[in-house]
Task: structure prediction
Amino acid sequence: MNGIIWISLLVLLLLAYVDRRRDMTVKMWLIVAGMFMLCQFYIDLFGLLIPAGCIAGLIYMRKAKKSYLSKALIFGLICVYANFYLPKITLTQLKEQVENAKYTAEFNQVRAVSQYSAASEVNAILQKAAEQLRDKNPKSEITIDDPHVLFSIWVLTHRDMSIQDLDWLWYTAPRELHYYWQSSRPDPLTTLEYVIFNETGYMGLFKRATASSPFLLESVYEFDRLKNANPAIP
Result:
């Protein structure tokens, strides 16, 4: 995020000089960029930012009588304060926040969000639980790698509900436990799994790296109800 702020403000700074580009020499452009970068030097005094670079730049501008550098000082000051005081957010975190906003928009109220990495043990736990259910009924034709199976296990385990076997989980559980389920695949690498009870709903976001790799649980959204088209609970 700091890099995004830095690059964005530098671009805006250069655009701010477009109106006088005919008067600017290459040396002047370099001094403007150098002044902006000088402003990024600061002193952290027990959590208080002292913009040492900006102060040095201001002294230079006045002594050299180069008033055109005032814009560079202003943009540099904004940049150093923004990078110092704003939360440090990586591009990955920013992407996750955008994705969260996208998915939570379909819920009336989000009660909790759980995030899991590809290396999280939750996926290994779900896979092991699915294998144990298959062992109870080896003749079952239900695929244990199916995201619906894995997410149903997650939800029922989360709600402290026992699971008999794979066939029961797929065919009987929704009717006996009174919940609605739905699977949606917006693209070949993403699957959305919904399990909705009367009072609470869950959506699981599964992703995979390639079309041949297994789906892994990345996020779980717990919500009260959908904003539109609430299903009938059996």
About this structure: Residues 94-223 form one domain.
